[in-house]
Amino acid sequence: MTRQRSSRSSASRRAPAQQVGKLRIIGGEFRRRQLPVLDSPGLRPTPDRVRETLFNWLGQELYGQAVLDLFAGTGALGIEALSRGAACVDFVERDPRVSAQLSANLTLLNITASAVHINDVQAYLTRAAKPYSLVFLDPPFHQQLAAACCHALENGGWLASEAMIYLETETSLAPDVPVNWQLHRETQAGESTARLYQRQLP
């Protein structure tokens, strides 16, 4: 997923983001479509190979599902889910410029049943919740956010009874996840490790 890997200085936050890259959708209805990606510090799409692996894991289970994409960045994973039949995606991204580009890309694809929320993820997870069948969670590395977000999802009512949760962290981190999350698949790419969990009823 496209994520912010490091904190940004105040100067970089003020710098204008430029459209310099493309995000390619790799499967489903929007397959081979290319979307603008901003040149923003720490922002990069999840590699095609990692996305392809994840959605092979998920198979045909996305049709009609509600999806939550946290630390959304370019929205690569959420848009891929929509392309493959998800009913709706709520994207959460705190950077207003990145959020604006994500909204523009949804409009470009004529997607109207999804929403972009400009918010800090931890603050967002304190809101009144609704259950999601699939959650993408790829927090910035080395900021100790993964465990807090995982437990907020479990304890806050954000997960359907057998929800799938995709978690990407730095490889050096041993994730602290709720005890009722069963590891379904795992893969490593460079400095990151991707894990797919399935929630069991507590």
Structure description:
The structure is a single chain. With 202 residues, the chain is of the alpha/beta class. The chain is 25% helix and 32% strand. It is built from 6 helices and 11 strands. It has helices at 10-14, 48-58, 76-83, 96-108, 121-124, 146-155; strands at 3-4, 18-24, 34-39, 43-44, 66-70, 88-92, 115-117, 132-137, 159-170, 181-189, 192-199. It has a 7-stranded mixed sheet, sandwiched between helices. The chain has a two-stranded antiparallel sheet with strand order 1-4. Strands 2-3 form a two-stranded antiparallel sheet. The chain is globular, with a radius of gyration of 16 Å. The relative contact order is 0.16.
Summarize the structure.
It is built from 6 helices and 11 strands. It is an alpha/beta fold.
